[in-house]
């Protein structure tokens, strides 16, 4: 199963996160399938590759709680058909 989750990057006390599609059994810094965006909580910046995110969601990828809230804030789910939304 594939999840959309955050992968920590950056230095100490200055975390920056990549949003990646990754296998559930992989660890946080494990090998990802594809990078689909990034999130900088210090500057409150988010970049999302929306077509790739929608592709993974259509294939059954489940976003984690934090990634799901970032996607809702960016209104990504408006482009996703509502009958396919079955998240945790």
Compact description:
By secondary structure, this protein is an alpha+beta fold. It contains two helices and five strands, in the order E-E-E-E-H-E-H.
Compile the SSE list and pairings.
Elements: E1 2-11, E2 14-23, E3 34-40, E4 45-48, H1 50-58, E5 62-63, H2 65-73
Parallel strand pairs: 1-5
Antiparallel strand pairs: 1-2, 2-3, 3-4
Family: Belongs to the bacterial ribosomal protein bS16 family.
InterPro entries: Ribosomal_bS16 (IPR000307), Ribosomal_bS16_CS (IPR020592), Ribosomal_bS16_dom_sf (IPR023803)
Protein name: Small ribosomal subunit protein bS16c
Portion in strands: 35-45%
User: How many strands, which pairing sense, and closed or not: the largest β-sheet?
Assistant: 5 strands, mixed
How would the global form be characterised?
Answer: globular
N to C succession of SSEs: EEEEHEH
Binned, the helix content reads: 10-25%
Any idea what the radius of gyration is? 13 Å
Q: What would the CATH topology be?
A: S16 Ribosomal Protein, Chain: A
Multimeric state of these chains? single chain
| Separate helix tally | 2
| Number of distinct beta strands | 5
Return the structural class: alpha+beta
CATH-defined architecture: 2-Layer Sandwich
What is the domain total for the residues? Answer: 1
The strands making up the biggest β-sheet line up spatially as: 4-3-2-1-5
Distance between the termini: 14 Å
- The CATH superfamily is known as Ribosomal protein S16
InterPro entries: Ribosomal_bS16, Ribosomal_bS16_CS, Ribosomal_bS16_dom_sf
Organism: Isodon rubescens (Rabdosia rubescens)
Family: Belongs to the bacterial ribosomal protein bS16 family.
GO molecular function: structural constituent of ribosome
